[in-house]
Amino acid sequence: MKVQVCIIGGGPSGLMLSQLLHLQGIDTIILEKSSRDYVLSRIRAGVLEHGFAKLMREAQCGERMDREGEIHHGFYIAHDGKLDRVDLHKYSGGNSVMVYGQTELTRDLYEARDKLGGKVVHNAADVTPHDIASDKPYVTYRSGEEVIRVDCDYIIGADGFHGVSRKSIPQDKIKEYERVYPFGWLGVLSRTKPVSPELIYAKHERGFALCSLRSQVLSRYYVQVPLTDKVEDWSDDAFWAELKRRLPEEVAAKLITGPSIEKSIAPLRSFVCEPMRYGRLFLAGDAAHIVPPTGARGLNSAASDIYYLYHALLDHYKKGDDTGIDGYSQRALARIWKAQRFSWWMTTLLHRFPDRLPYEDKLQDTEFAYLFSSEAAQRSLAENYVGLPF
């Protein structure tokens, strides 16, 4: 089999790039190790930058997002028993974010791929890139007892942190930067009306909490927990009780509780791999970088990678111009590190670190006082939250 671009990973990043390239007549195939049902069962982020939403529309996948998604012009930060609102629309020059679940977004992308007859292979076992430093790379995978070869011009590794793509690059050709945080987020999804029409980030002496939503009938809540905690340690009642403790009384009084649909603990990690290209293999999304979920940069950072790759490949095939391909890693990383900085800042601002010093507590309190007394500080927060330009 011969295609122009072979994409490893059938999550939203791989699907979006395949869709965008297909619309321009560029032949792709996606190799995904899991089933379609499994990919669609993953509960992930739901806050989209305005640039991400625009990219969905360009991929002809934005109709349901625009109909069912919620535009948010701000969010709240709870601290010291009170609520302060960050006005994104005011401080970002009129921009906003879109609240739309990643599961729904992925479903829209799959349906778009089906409509165009896109080549998506699920349950692809033993996916392996070959000759990635040559001008004739290829990928093999196994389907049952058959080993299938895919010849291509370029390979895109969009297969996540634990995927094969980054591991295929010689270790002496990359440098990895990582920070593992000493806590995780216990998250609960419930079929309940959200406690607030906009997200609430809460700083509390017992630890961080977040009130988020997927729709007006589907809520997503989180509390900071030690890495030693297990999901089994937390009953639904214990979760709701702890969440209420960390919210201002006026918010806790309005909280509607119910049985959890999904419950999980996500450890927090910051990670960057440099460069994001080796030969004909390009890394995108979690294969190259991870941020803590504070600030909702993960999926959005992956979207910027796809934007750069899409335009680089378009220029290569349509104009014979390789400027975008040669500059992909440098350009993508410049934006990625800014997202890393913002996620680190939000995480440091809002969480209770177990080994903190009294000095750090005072700095955290001062940071809040400065943030809500300075329009310049709120502009900086807002422009990063809605998304820096691609």
Radius of gyration of CA atoms, rounded to a whole number:
21 Å
Trace the largest sheet across and list its strands: 6-5-14-15-16-13-17-20
Please report the total strand number as a whole number: 20
* Tally of helical runs: 14
Helical residue percent band: 25-40%
- Spatial gap, N to C terminus: 34 Å
Regions with pLDDT < 50 over 5+ consecutive residues?
none
Morphology call:
globular
Strand content: 25-35%
Oligomer: single chain
Rounded mean pLDDT score: 95
Largest sheet: 8 strands, mixed
Structural class of the helix and strand makeup? Answer: alpha+beta
Summarize the structure.
With 390 residues, this protein is an alpha+beta fold.
Report on the structure:
The radius of gyration is 21 Å and the shape is globular. 37% of the residues lie in helices and 28% in strands. The two termini are 34 Å apart. The protein has helices at residues 12-23, 36-41, 50-58, 63-68, 88-91, 102-115, 164-167, 236-245, 249-252, 298-319, 323-326, 328-350, 358-371, 375-386, and strands at residues 5-8, 28-31, 47-49, 70-72, 74-79, 82-87, 97-99, 119-121, 125-130, 138-143, 146-151, 154-157, 175-190, 200-202, 209-215, 218-225, 260-274, 277-278, 281-283, 289-290. It has 390 residues and is an alpha+beta fold. An eight-stranded mixed sheet has the order 6-5-14-15-16-13-17-20, with helices on both faces. A six-stranded mixed sheet has the order 8-2-1-12-19-18. Strands 3-7-4 form a three-stranded antiparallel sheet.
